Amino acid sequence: MTRAKEGDPGQLWVLADTQAEGRGRNGRVWSSPMGNLHASLLLIDPAPPHRAAELGFVAGVATAHALREILREDRRVTIKWPNDVLHAGAKLCGILLESANLPDGRFACVAGVGVNCRRHPADTPYKATNLSAIAGQPITPEMVFARLSATMTHWLDVWAASAGFESIRAEWLSLAAGLGGWIGVARTSQTIEGTFQTIDATGRLILEQTSGPVAIEAGDVFFSPRSGSSATAGG
Length: 235
Hints:
Helices cover 24% and strands 30% of the residues. The chain folds into 2 domains: 2-175, Bira Bifunctional Protein, Domain 2 (BirA Bifunctional Protein, domain 2), CATH 3.30.930.10; 182-227, Roll (SH3 type barrels). Helix 2 (54-70) packs across helix 4, helix 2 crosses helix 5 and helix 4 crosses helix 5 (165-175). The strands form 2 sheets. Strands 1-2-6-5-4-3 form a 6-stranded antiparallel beta sheet, with helices on one face. The model is unreliable at 227-235 (pLDDT under 50). The chain has 235 residues and is of the alpha+beta class.
């Protein structure tokens, strides 16, 4: 974002071997050890500001496809709403989206992508894993970035096409974890449970309850035992 404020035109990847102040959603700490991928993509005016949140879903789809390719099309790679990437229910990757209106009138978006390539934290309230453990051989950040940069370019192009978010939405749903199952969404003041029905045209999660559908804009998803999944919410 500093580069954007200095006038960078965007289409810029920034990579770090480690991060001293890695952040997850809601200000949580993101563990950033050597051997994992820590990448941020800066885009300038990728879409009108009211569509900025869609970029998180684009990044999720692109990352999930990159990791599936690395793991030989392993379909256990899925996306937990809104854009955590899981493997067999364990967190493999987190994505953080930030945006800002710049003083010169431009609109900047940064998609931060953290992938557990060789290490994952063990002291978390949710299951986590890493690519090397899954593959049974070393997977380097360079290998992951090579695939991620290619899939990100592809899905950004799809997003920019005439179909817009609808194409991304359809692809996201094909990769979604827990779709059709019973889930909970933890929010600041309450946890809402119901059947994960879909996401709507703006990316809101739609829960089906006995009283009818509920649209949720933000929260941490966890999978109830009745859904048959062991995954829980992550940062």
